[in-house]
Amino acid sequence: MKTITKQYKLIVFLCISILTISCETDVTDDITIAESTPKLVINGGLERNITSPLATQQIRLTTTINFLSNEPNPPVTDATVSITDGTETWVFSHQGDGYYANAMMPVLDKTYTITIEWNGETYEGADPLNEAPTFTNFYTEFEEETIFFTGGYFIKFDSQDPADIENYYYYRVVKDGEYFIIPDAGNSFNLITSDKFFDGQMRSGVTLNREITFEPGELATGQQLGISEEYFDYLFELFTQTGSSGGFGGNPPPATIRSNVINLTTPSNRAVGYFYSVDVEEGSVVVEE
Q1: How far is Cα 58 from Cα 93, in angstroms, rounded to an integer?
Q2: Is the N or C terminus of the chain more exposed, i.e. has fewer CB atoms within 10 Å?
Q3: Tens digits of per-residue pLDDT, 76-116?
C-alpha cells in the first residue's frame, strides 16, 4: 500500500504562492513568470498502524517548480534527514527519487521532530502522535442514489470517542491499493472532523467517504487517523482550497498554506508541505450483496 498518496501534486501546487490568471482563451504560451529560488517541499510523516504495520516510514523531499511547468518536481537527493522523539534519534537514508526511509516504529503520546539539512540550511518541524479510537464495528452498507450522493456500497463504522479529550480525525479510504480522494469543497468537513460536538459519545454508522463507492466482491479498506489540531487546521485549508479551486485549469489559484516545517537558517524561506505524526485505526471488509 502506498504511503505517499495521490495528494502529493495537489499539495505542492496548493501550497505555493502563485500568480492569479483570469482569461477566456488559452494564452499560457504568452505568459512569462519570473523564476524564483526553489523551495523545499516535504511530503510524508510517521504512521503508527498496528493492523497493517509499515515496513518503513517514508518522507519525500522535492523542490518547487514554475507553476506553468509540466515537469515533475525535482527530487532532493542530497539532504540529511533525521527524526527524534527527544530521547532517541533516527537517521533516514535516501532510497532514490527523493524518498528517505527508516524502519523505526513510532509510539503513542510522543512528539516527533524532523530535522532536514539541505542546501546549506536547516529546517525543523514537529507533530505529536495522538491515539485513534478503535472500530467497534466496520462494515459496508448499500444506499440508494439521491440528488446529493451517488448510490452504491459505502464504508461505515462504529467507534467510541474518548471523553474529556480534544480529538481530531482524518478519514482515508483505500481502493485498488491507493488512498483515494476526490477533490471536493465538502472534503474540509467530510474527511476531517473534531469531536467538539460528540466528545465521549458512541458514534454509530459513520460514513468514511460519501464519494467513494464499492461493488460486491471488492475489498473495502478504511482508516480513521488520530491527528493533531495543527495538522487538522492544515488539512482544512488544503481541502477547502482544493474544492474551491476546482483544479488548476485556468481557475484562480489558492493562497499559500503555511507549513509546520520552518527554516532555522533563513526563517523567511519556509518549506512547503507538512510533516505529520498519526495513529491509524484500520478496517477491511469484502463487500457482500
Answers
A1: 10
A2: C
A3: 999 999 999 999 999 999 999 999 999 999 999 999 999 99
Eight-state DSSP code of residue 30: G
How far is Cα 286 from Cα 73, in angstroms, rounded to an integer? 37
**Model's pTM, two decimal places?**
0.84
Query: pLDDT category, 68, cuts 50, 70, 90?
Result: low
Residues recorded for the chain: 289
Domain boundaries, the chain: 7-286
CA dist., res. 235 & res. 252, Å (int): 20
The answer to whether residues 101 and 57 touch, using CB atoms and an 8 Å cutoff, is yes
Q: How far is CA 143 from CA 137, 154, 180, 219, 284, in A?
A: 18, 7, 20, 18, 19
Nearest to 69 by CA among 35, 116, 110, 46: 35
Q: Look at the block and give the residue holding cell 507533530.
A: 127
Q: Which residues are bridge partners to 202 per DSSP?
A: 160
Treating both helix axes as pointing N-terminal to C-terminal, what angle do 229-245 and 7-14 enclose, rounded to 10 degrees?
Answer: 90
Closest CA to 51 of 228, 231, 224, 286: 224
